[in-house]
Amino acid sequence: MIRISARRVAIFGGVYSNHLALEATLADAAAAGADEAICLGDLGAFGPHPDRACEIVRQAGIAVVQGNYDHSLGHGLPDCRCGYTDPRDNRFAALSYRYTYARTAPTHRAWMRDLPPAIRLSLDGCETLLCHGSPRRANEFLWESSTSDAFLAWLLDTSDAAALCVSHTGLPWTRELPPGRRVVNVGAIGRPANDGDPRVVYAILTAAPEGGAPGVEWRRVAYDHSALASEMREEGLPEEFAETIETGWWTTCLEVLPQKERARGRY
What we know:
- The chain is α/β, with parallel strands linked by helices.
- The protein has a single domain, classed as 4-Layer Sandwich (Purple Acid Phosphatase, chain A, domain 2), CATH 3.60.21.10.
- Helix content is 34%, strand content 21%.
- The protein has a 6-stranded mixed β-sheet, covered by helices on one side. The chain has a 5-stranded mixed β-sheet with strand order 4-3-2-10-11.
- The radius of gyration is 17 Å and the shape is globular.
């Protein structure tokens, strides 16, 4: 397993082929003084030109956790194993996966196949586990409203970690648990957080001055979302995908949302 030590780390997930947001996120993290930038997986999906995101992270030498999308692409599986159960969600997921697989170079797919399922990060001695969905499954959804403190504490205990960072749901949130432990869902930078803001979100974790739970700084990043929407339309991706990028509101993958999370959106 990869181990990284740092004091201030930018952590983002769900790139979803949004190469423009990825470039803007990395620039913002550097300007904010992050020692490292780490990706929690799902480089492909949803957006256009998936090879571009792969090239950016590989050329920058960024550590990447294997998401469910990366695993499926790397192993040539027939679907993304996203964990959806609703037919509409699965229809859009299938469209996205077929497009992404056909346009991801074999060299990038081979690289994805060997990505680690988790990374251990030491924030000044605070043992932090980084994974895609959860320590149990890459496609497990940890929603803020439906994930109990007891379950989060169990995940930390079984992972021998004081902090845990995940992605997969695409919605950012954090919770501090006694004694001095923290769980962070960093959301996704591939599409907005279903709140009407086209900007994307990532987190910077900073080591606590005297131990304890790491600090979390949420960063909103603007990028040329109109240009990305134009690329999506040129590539023949669903209009619903482009609408999400332009408006900041999700139009797909909604049925999986718990009631409280869905109530915050437009649809």
